[in-house]
Amino acid sequence: MKVDFLEPPDRLILSADLKPDEGGVNGLRRRILALAESVADTGVTFKINSALRVCGYSLIKDLHDRGMKVMADLKLNDIPETMGTDASMLVEYRPEFLTLMCSAGIDGLKKVRDTLRTTQLLGVSILTSLDEEECQAIFSCSIKAGVLHFARMAQLADLDGLVSSGAELAVLKRHQELTLSLNTPAIRPQWAMIRWDDQEKARVMTPKQAIQDGADRIIIGRPILEAKTNNHGFPQTPREAIEKTLDEIREAVASCDC
């Protein structure tokens, strides 16, 4: 489902994939909910992955109770019957977004679609951690060819959007028959880029670049989660980092009228 218009906060997904510390699972839940409470009124979406598996789907309700929209980043990938079962277990929790692997196949994707009618389903194409050599070894094609193939599968399965890196945005935008929303990870805000060396810069994209290239939503984790006090004008807290990133998104939207 291609989106017509999104407000700047609707375009930002906070990847809150925290790791457990000495507090264990209970400590992880507390840290996630504390983070949610600190940024809830910014209007961004809260993406959780591993924490859902260890804390349980009730974490979605806890986040909803704190005013957060939730992306359940489960990357479902199994036989069709199991995909349908997984989807049925999420019905009562109603996450706003759910990710599933396009490689599960059209039948499996449709099982989830048939079960979750109100959740926006985002198909994950080629993981951003894979390079060309690995993509060839696994899928026998280039990354761009694989992403386009999975995008067509996602559309046939009536999914709402695709998760893909910024490098493939131009390819996807050229195919106007695709009506999927484009959701892009591996984003670094401009204010955070100077923290990374030149090699890192070559592999990432700023919010402005991604949106101008066609991204509907951008997914950001570490730059926001690791915001801390310093003497160089960086945001001091995740909330401040979100607000500064939203300013970049507003500038991007204004510059391309998208």
From TrEMBL:
Q: Where is the Orotidine 5'-phosphate decarboxylase domain?
A: 11-242
| Record-linked SMART domains | OMPdecase (SM00934)
Q: Which reaction does it catalyse?
A: orotidine 5'-phosphate + H(+) = UMP + CO2
Binding-site list for substrate? K47, T128, R188, G221, R222
Question: From which domain of life does this come?
Answer: Bacteria
Named in its record, the pathway it takes part in is:
Pyrimidine metabolism; UMP biosynthesis via de novo pathway; UMP from orotate: step 2/2
Q: Which GO terms describe its biological process?
A: 'de novo' pyrimidine nucleobase biosynthetic process; 'de novo' UMP biosynthetic process
Q: Where is the active site?
A: D73 (for ompdecase activity), K75 (for ompdecase activity), D78 (for ompdecase activity)
Gene Ontology molecular function = orotidine-5'-phosphate decarboxylase activity
E.C. number, please? 4.1.1.23
InterPro entries per the record? Aldolase_TIM (IPR013785), OMPdecase (IPR014732), OMPdecase_AS (IPR018089), OMPdeCOase_dom (IPR001754), RibuloseP-bd_barrel (IPR011060)
Q: Which Pfam families match?
A: OMPdecase
Any coiled-coil regions, as ranges: none
Q: Keywords assigned by UniProt?
A: Decarboxylase, Lyase, Pyrimidine biosynthesis
Q: Which GO terms describe its cellular component?
A: cytosol
Query: What is this protein for, i.e. what is its function?
Result: Catalyzes the decarboxylation of orotidine 5'-monophosphate (OMP) to uridine 5'-monophosphate (UMP).
Question: What is the protein name for this chain?
Answer: Orotidine 5'-phosphate decarboxylase
